[in-house]
What does this fold into?
Amino acid sequence: MLQAGFDIGGTNIAAGIVDEDAKLVLKRSIPFPAGEPYQVAVEALAQLLTEMTEELFVPVSSLASIGIAVPGSIDQASERVVHAYNLQFHDVPLRSALMGYFPSVPVFLANDANAAALAELYAGAFVGCKTAVLITLGTGIGGGLILGGRMFNGGLGNGVELGHMVLEHGGPLCTCGTRGCIEALCTATWLVQQGRKSLIEYPHAMIATKAGQVLSNVNAKLVIDCAKAGDAIAKDIFDRYVDQLGSALTSCFNLLDPEVIALGGGVSLAGEFLFSPLRENVKQKCFFKNCGKIVQAKLGNDAGIIGAAMLAKN
It folds into this structure.
């Protein structure tokens, strides 16, 4: 049977129809109605799903389930979005609102990072695993856990915030208000901050030259590309980044002993330039001599859709 999945972001709503083997049959995307009441977004979901099922010549009522992935916290019963700040969703009864349009189809709700981890379990880097960790390295840190072959949503149902484990006492201020979180030290944002700092301190180095001396031109890819090219300043920044991320992953290995940790997000696109030194860094720090694998996540931007569609199976 077919399942539907929605991945709601602050810019776009991605949607897909997925078969029982977790393969995308159809995918669509529409702008997120920013600034509108949540009911407008729910109506957009319903309209989009109706259009997709009509395109496939199947009625919505024939779907096995509908799943919704949201970048925010979900209540313990998986009924309401407690807070999704970039959507301006606060105490939103998202599940019941969509069921109002399709009362005969079960609807499931989850955090987007949890859904992405579930997608990797069914169709990506975690296939065949019982214990695995997904970490997405972007502007912030997203993370999801697979424990016992199932998505883990926290012992009290509050979810999993891997990005807000504290890595460095008194470290950089995180967006959550705490200092030294993984999110403050292991994101693309940290690379950008350090790259812009170097532009001021080393105005003749490669980062400054490539950026045309303009701070806003410095992004994570530029820093990584300059490190790849052998620039000493960029390489120092990147080496510090690898060491910080290696400490974060080591903590995950020491705590959970997972079979696999998969990294997604923009920074992971650095490929083996990142993964090779990172594996060596973790190998040197990890308590276990036979710690699990560190790999790149496989599903990319489709993970949220596929994971949302697979929520019923969890």
